[in-house]
Design brief:
Layout: E1 4-10, E2 14-21, E3 26-33, E4 45-46, H1 48-66, E5 73-80, E6 84-88, E7 106-107, H2 115-123, H3 150-155, E8 156-161, H4 162-171, H5 178-184, H6 197-202, H7 208-212, E9 226-227, H8 230-236, E10 243-244, E11 248-249, H9 250-259, H10 266-269, E12 272-277, E13 281-287, E14 297-301, E15 309-315, H11 319-329, H12 337-354, E16 364-366, E17 384-386, H13 394-421, E18 428-433, H14 439-449, E19 452-456, H15 461-473, H16 480-487, E20 491-494, H17 501-523
Parallel strand pairs: 1-5, 5-10, 5-11, 12-18, 18-19
Antiparallel strand pairs: 1-2, 2-3, 4-7, 6-7, 6-8, 9-10, 12-13, 13-15, 14-15, 16-17, 19-20
Helix pairs in contact: 9-15, 11-13, 12-13, 13-14, 13-17, 15-16
Length: about 525
Amino acid sequence: MREYVVAVDIGTGSARAGVFDGRGRLLARTDQPIAMNRPEENHAEHDSEDIWAAVCGAVRSAREKAAVPAESVAAIGFDATCSLVVRDRDGAPLSVNRQGEARWDTIVWLDHRALAEADFCTATRHQVLDHSGKVMSPEMEMPKLKRNLPHQWEKAGYFFDLADYMSWRATGSPARSRCTLTAKWNYLAHEKRGWQQDYLEQIGLEDLLARGGLPEETLPVERAVGRLNASAAEELGLDAECRVAPGLIDAYAGALGVLGGFAGDKAKLERQLALIGGTSSCIVAFSKDMKPGFGMWGPYFEAVLPGLWLIEGGQSATGALLDHIVRLHGGGLPPTTETHAKIIERVQELRALHGGPGFADRLHVLPDFHGNRSPLADPHALGVISGLALDSSFDALCRLYWRTCVAIALGIRHILEMMKEVGYELDTLHVTGGHVRNSLLMELYCDVTGCRVVAPETPDAVLLGTAMTAAVAGKLYPDLASAGPAMSSAGKERLPDATRRRDYDRDYRRFLALYRHREELESIE
């Protein structure tokens, strides 16, 4: 009897595989690193063969660790960052590296080489941009393509979002997930014809579908792509009867992992918000109605749940920003888990010593070191630090680290305020990802936003969300409305501290003032 599923999550620096039972219990998990090439500023590249090898190793190891036989695995699901895999007409890797190094065939999501092309797309003011916050991000797939790779464009045969590449590699099927195309390719799933040909012509991609092997129709998340082909089954250590779920964007897998328990109750679901915090941060909400907002990605129809719209706000650098602060002001300290823990411990000591909210309150940070994804939708935005002194001590680093954490939380509040303006009534924030292990951020997400914050008990909500889709593909459940509640976990709840509200309200006013001052400075000629 096939009663288990495998979930694979491909992040920025590693691939993770987990084995789950039908109740959502994680039996075993294994991580494998993946390589990233940073050949020049704003360029970041993966090797898709390296990613596939890492995934195969992680899946084999996790299944062996769980002591689950291959013939007991009903399905496998993949989620991944919105990185772009380029293949030639024969399906072989096609380099995206400016120097032509063959192995680097994937543009990483955080690659910002396509800033000018994104601006060009935005300037069209086409209706598809109503579903991208009216602004095209260089992290989306359209800007990354033709202009940056003119010679490779002529040789191309397939363009894949990374999650779709994994299902293609696993099954041989060129089907694309509704999740990936709707969220990252300007595909309008709510329209009779999802691809808007007039838009493709305006941005010079009139031959996109033929050049990239892209289908007219998408595959809903609750369907199966197919079964594993023989070679993939052998490499993954599974069998050819194992089904494959459509790919998910990693943040949306995390959203499903923490909100899946509400999948059968749309009224409750609409009041919940998922925050997936890692290298960057994504906040995801669902709605029965289309509620567009400037600077928000979406609304995307049926990107995850049938009949529902999904909207996403985000911060391009959060965990990565804290690492950067450690490198920049840490006197050579590496941004390891141990370093972060020592800083957090010292911050708590200093806060107790200096009176809590008043600690370092003359330091102010705008966290836009890699642009502002939401709600300003400005990929050109830069970070700001105000209030530095001639102090390079460890305590000075701790003060700056604390205020950077405050700035990240204020950025989340900024996004939530904009979402409320367009009709989202959200009161509960479900947090997952690496930020759950940062006690400062977890406290601030609650106290700065005024939301009830829930941290799920599951050790990996992103993997769990992907496991839910695999459970449907493997016919353990008929749909996500059934799989979500059956597989979801309880959570640890935190309520906001009302005594700190006044201080954080003041911080928020200063935060907005700093944005105005930055704009004023940049407008001076």
